[in-house]
Specification:
The chain has 316 residues and is an alpha/beta fold. It has ten helices and ten strands. Strand 4, helix 4 and strand 5 form a beta-alpha-beta unit. The protein starts with 8 loop residues before the first strand and ends in a 6-residue tail after the last strand.
């Protein structure tokens, strides 16, 4: 997962036209993109409507001063950090502490010096780049923590948590939720005949076939254990679930190529169940739903494998 680095656009809040023009000139010379406001409230409106990674604000301004602007920005939750630089004519420790406590990250004492501004902005960019790198690393760790490393499907931990959320959502909005339990047929024979490397490839191909058969960012697949997979289909009724399961079954079926023209074929069996909540429906759990799908899967195995068996309404 790759996070986009927010654009380095600077928001200027400065009511004095000479100071503002000088700051704009320096930013132009350093190659920065910026938008200017003449008071704190105008700057806050621009900030709320745009995307700024750096805000340079004067302390004393009409309508809203710089420290109030800093507090207003810090009170918001955004998916990226905004670096705040406070411009001040006050160089006393007390004033600087007050500005930093308001949420400012750095300060520049007026009159603005171009060399000092350049250095401050370079330090600002280093901090923003480090913050972005940290978020990228955390996002990658998060992705690894919820995915099966072999197949790329979600793992059991994600399944246990997310399926409960899907069930809660189904009850809240009274929308159907379908669940498919998929199990590769005679998978031990695949490993024994071709070896575990080929077996791993078969599992990966199975997940790829499932992923190609479901809706992106709506449906999802998790590895339940070994060669078993759970596929969640929100907003999908019994008929729609059967269509999707049959599509997966057809895509999974193939013959491994080992160069020996082996008659062994890959196939999978499917058990499907659909939850249709209404005022009279007793609340079910993720474990109950999987167990019901497992009963249907068992029937698919008993009746010859490589088929889809759905739970009947009488069983629901």
């Amino acid at each position: 997962m790759t996070l986009q680095n927010p654009p380095t656009q600077i928001l200027i809040a400065e009511d004095d036209p000479i100071s503002r023009s000088l700051l704009e000139l320096y930013l132009d010379q350093e190659g920065y993109s910026y938008v200017s406001a003449t008071n704190g409230q105008e700057a806050l409106d621009l900030y709320n409507a745009g995307q700024f990674s750096i805000v340079i604000t004067d302390w004393l301004m009409p309508e809203m001063d710089g420290t109030t602007l800093c507090r207003a920005i810090r009170s918001q939750t955004r998916d990226y950090y905004t670096f705040l630089i406070l411009l001040t004519a006050q160089n006393s420790p007390k004033a600087l502490v007050e500005g930093l406590e308001a949420g400012a990250d750095d300060y520049i004492v007026k009159p603005i010096n171009r060399a000092e501004l350049r250095v401050r902005l370079k330090g600002c960019r280093r901090i923003l780049d480090l913050e972005h790198s940290l978020k990228q690393s955390l996002a990658e760790i998060r992705e690894l923590s919820i995915h099966d490393p072999l197949t790329g499907a979600f793992n059991r931990g994600y399944l246990d948590q997310q399926l409960e959320h899907e069930i809660q959502r189904a009850y809240r909005y009274r929308h159907p939720l379908s669940l498919v339990l998929c199990d590769l047929d005679h998978f031990k024979l695949v490993n024994d005949t071709y070896g575990h490397q080929v077996g791993d490839t078969v599992l990966q191909r199975c997940v790829h076939s499932i992923t190609q058969s479901i809706r992106h960012q709506i449906d999802w697949v998790a590895r339940y254990g070994g060669e078993e997979f759970v596929i969640a289909l929100p907003e999908t009724d019994t008929a729609g679930c059967s269509v999707v399961a049959e599509r997966m079954r057809e895509r999974i079926a193939f013959s491994p190529d080992d160069g020996k023209n082996s008659p062994l074929k890959i196939s999978a069996s499917f058990g499907t169940v659909t939850l249709v909540p209404d005022a009279q429906t007793l609340r079910t759990s993720a474990a109950d739903l999987i167990q019901r799908a497992d009963i249907c899967l068992y029937r698919a195995k008993l009746s010859g494998r490589n088929r889809v068996v759905a739970e009947t309404s009488a069983e629901g």
